[in-house]
């Protein structure tokens, strides 16, 4: 299904073809503090419509995930990286999708133990 989303101030906007059937919550030091509920999609199914020049990046641990956030409002609405098979992927924060209630999606979430990495 196609979803539109972005940051709080509207500077960053995108659309993504993704399923909300298998959301993930992670307890790593970043995701837990952000309260992220994530869904993953191939990079080819994600289009950044505006705000690429307004994104800043944060990396930690093994420096393999590009945590991108809006320079204006600070919201991290998506990240980029590679899936275990090496293909490019995008992790979209369900909290930032228009018209989606993340509390409903979060009740189905798989908990990932990011602290163990």
UniProtKB/TrEMBL annotation:
Residues 3-113 form the CENP-V/GFA domain. The keyword Nucleus does not apply. GO terms for molecular function: carbon-sulfur lyase activity; metal ion binding. It holds the Pfam family GFA. Keywords: Metal-binding, Zinc. InterPro entries: CENP-V-like, CENP-V/GFA, Mss4-like_sf. Belongs to the Gfa family. This is GFA family protein.
